Amino acid sequence: MTATREESAVWSRMRRDALAYFTALSRGRTPFSLQIALPDSYDQLISGQWDEVAPEEDLAKLAIESGRVLLSAEAGSGKTHLLVRAGASAAAGPDNVIPFWLPLRDLPSTIRSREPESFVQALIGLSYPSLKPVLTSSSEVPMLLLLADGLNEIPRELSQPALDALDELARRFPFISVIVSERLVRRPVPLDRWKLATVLPLSDKQVDDFWSANREFEKAPQAALKLLKNPFFLDKATTFSLTDGSAAKMIEAYFSKMACVNDAGLDTLSKVCYESYSRERGMLIPLTDFTNRVEEPLFQTLKENELVRTSGTFVWFAHHLFHDFLASRYLVRHRSIWGPEAFDIVTTGASSFDSLRLAVDQIHDPAVADNLVRLVYDWNYFGAAYSLVAGRVTSEMQVELLAMLADKRWDPVAATVQAATDALRLNGSIIAGKMLAASNRTQLFRVVEEVPSVNPSFIRWKTIFTIQDGEYVGAEIVQSLASDDPIEAWTLANVLRRCRLTADGAKKLLGIARNESPVTRWRAVHVLGLHPSPDTATVVKSLTRDPDKWVRYGAVRALIEVTANTNDNSLRIGIVTWLGEQLAAEKFDTKMVQELGRVLDVRPQPHDWPQVVAPLVQQLASTSRNSFQQDRWNTLMASISSGREPK
Q: Model's pTM, two decimal places?
C-alpha cells in the first residue's frame, strides 16, 4: 500500500530530524578521511589480510546493499566517527533512506529481561529518531539504516543477545539495514548474512599533514608514530607536547590540558569510573551519583570541554577510552584489589580488555607490570595476552605468555585453538609470528630455547614449559599446581595435560582437585580431563557443583575431554547420560551450558564422536530461545559431523 500524504510527511520530517541529529553528533569531530577494508572471513580480518578496500563514503551504501555490516576495529580507530558520517550521508542523500542512531552503551539501563524479544524492544526504544512510527505502518515505508554504536561497551553477557536482536530486526523487516561497531573479536555470526568491515589506520602522510597543520614548528615524534595512526590519539596529541607512544600518558595529559584536572581530580574521577563499572556494569553513571562525588567546577569544566556528556539521568565520558583509562588508573593505584573480581569489573565481564592494557601502560617498574599481567593470567589468559605493552613488561614475560598461547594451538578443543591463534595474530610481534609459524610443539620449543635470558625465573619456567610430551611425572611435580606463581602453575597445568602421570602423581592430582584454593582446584580440573578414568570422572562431576564459577566452568570442559579421550565405552556413555540428566534438571548455569556447547567440537575426534554427542547437542538446541541460537547449535553439529572447524 502506498504511503498516505500524512505518512510521507512523517518520513520527510524524520529524515530532517535525523540529518540535524547526525550533524550535531559530528560537530567538533576531527574530519579524518578514513578507509575501510572488507575481509571475506574472520581469518582475514584478524590476520589483517584482505583484497577489497573502500572509502568511508561507501559504508552506508554497503550496508543498504548487503543488509548487515559488522564494523570491527581497535579502540579509537574512528568507528563512531564512521557511523555518524554514514548517518549524515544517508539523511542528506538522494535515496529514500532514514538513518537511526542506537547508542548501545545505554542498553544495560533499559533492558528489563534476558528474553530475546526484550532486546528487540529495548533497541527499538533506544533509537533516534524513534523507529516505532515506521515499524507500525501498514503502508509502503522507506529504507531504514540502523547505526548501532559500541557493542564492546556493554557487558559480555548482553553483547551477543544484542547482536542477535539487531539481526532479528533486519530479518523481521526487510527494509532495515544495520551497521554495528565492535572491537576486533570473532563473533558467531553467519557470514552469509553479515558483511565484515574494519577501519584502516591513518597513513604516514595523513599523520604528517595533520601534525604540520596543528604543530607548525614540530615534527610528529617517530616513537609515537604507530599510536598516532589511530585517529583518537592523533586528534588528542596535537594539544600538548608528546614525547613517546604511551596511550595512558596521552589520555592523562589530555585531561590536564583540556580541563586542568590535577592528580586529586583524577583520583576522584578514577574512583567514580571504577565504581560505576562495578555497580552499573557499563559506561553510564547516574547523574546524582556523579554530582555528589565530583565538585561542581570540575564537572562544569569537563562538560565545557566535551570530556563528558549528560542526559537528564546519566553522565558518560565522551569516549570509552576515557572511562577505561580512569578505571584502570584506580586499579593501578590500589594493588590490594588486584584479582579476578577487580579484573572482571574494569573489563565489564571480559567484554573489552582496553582497561587492562591501559593499566599496564601506566606501570613503569617492569617487575610490577609483570606481576599485574601474571595475576591477570590467573583470571583470563586472553586478557593477559592483550595486556602485553612493549617497554612495560619484561621481554621474558612476553615470551612466556605468547608461548603458552601458542601451546594451545594443539589443544583438543577447536574453539580454543581458534581463539589462541587469533590472539597471537592480534599481538603482531616478531616473536608471536615465529610461534605462529611453528608447525608442531617441538618447533615451538625451539623458538623458546633461542630466547636469550639469564633471569632465573624465566629459566625455571622454560624448564617446565619444554617438558616433552608423554614424559612421566610424579607427585612432587604435580604438587606445584598449588604454587603461588600463577604463570609457573598454569604452565605446569598445561604441560601435565600432555604428560603421563605415575600412580602417585595421579593420586596427588585428585587430591589437589579438593584444595581449599579455588584457583588451584581450577588448575587441577584443567589437567584432569586429559587423564581419563572412573575416579577422574567422579571427582570432576563433583566439581560441577563447586562454589567457584571458574571451577564449575573447567569441570564441564574436563568431562567432555574425559569422554573424548577414554577407551572405556561404558564410562563415555555414562558421562554423556549424566550430562544429559544435569541439563534436563537445569543444574548447569548459563556459563556452564555455553562452555559445554563450545567444547563438544574436539580434534582429533574419536571415530564415533558425532553419534556420541548428538543427543547432547539436540538437548542444548531444544533450549534455544530464538532461531539464531538454533542456527548456532545446527552449525556446531555440522562442524562436529564433518570434523572441520567452523568458519
A: 0.87
